[in-house]
């Protein structure tokens, strides 16, 4: 039988904290979402002043990264040749979602909404890096 790593509440909280710190460093108000490897929600944090659509967008970016096992922004490059991918309603082709990988296995996704695509991705990366640092 195989064993599978899963994120603990402590690890999730550390990742959210690191992402929020990065958002503050960038002078942004953002929403951070984490999900497991199946795209199911684990945590959602919406900073004060963040737009009302950001929870849905951050969650979709996290889910896309987890289910694709790749950054959510990577999907945009495929759309020109495969526009039918837009019919997959579970996926959001926008930067800001990153897979969370441990021992070469995807264990979840982190998604951010509130800034530009590059800013959202930097915030997500800061959150993801907290797992490695912890």
Tell me the strand percentage band: 15-25%
Rg over CA atoms:
14 Å
Number of strands: 4
Give the overall shape. Answer: globular
Report low-confidence residues grouped into runs of 5 or more: none
Instruction: Please outline the major beta sheet.
Output: 4 strands, antiparallel
Query: Roughly what is the average pLDDT, rounded to an integer?
Result: 93
Report how far the terminal alpha carbons are from each other: 28 Å
Give the number of helices.
Answer: 4
Give the strand line-up of the largest sheet.
Answer: 2-1-4-3
Question: By helix and strand content, what is the structural category?
Answer: alpha+beta
Q: Percent helix among the residues?
A: 40-55%
| Helix-strand topology string | HEEHHEEH
What does this structure look like?
This protein has helices at 9-25, 54-68, 74-79, 117-133, and strands at 31-36, 41-46, 97-102, 105-113. By secondary structure, the chain is an alpha+beta fold. The chain has a 4-stranded antiparallel sheet with strand order 2-1-4-3. The protein starts with 8 loop residues before the first helix and ends with a helix.
């Amino acid at each position: 039988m195989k064993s599978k790593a899963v994120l603990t509440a402590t690890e999730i909280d550390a990742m959210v904290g690191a992402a929020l710190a990065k958002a503050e460093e960038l002078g942004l108000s953002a929403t951070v979402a984490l999900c497991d490897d199946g795209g199911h929600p684990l945590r959602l944090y919406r900073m004060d002043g963040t737009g009302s659509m950001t929870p849905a967008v951050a969650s979709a970016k996290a889910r896309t990264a987890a289910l694709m096992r790749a950054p959510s922004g990577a999907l945009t490059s495929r759309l020109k040749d495969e526009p039918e991918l837009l019919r997959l309603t579970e996926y959001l082709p926008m930067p800001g979602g990153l897979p969370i990988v441990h021992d070469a296995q995807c264990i979840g996704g982190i998604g951010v909404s509130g800034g530009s695509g590059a800013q959202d991705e930097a915030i997500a990366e800061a959150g993801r890096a907290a797992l490695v640092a912890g």
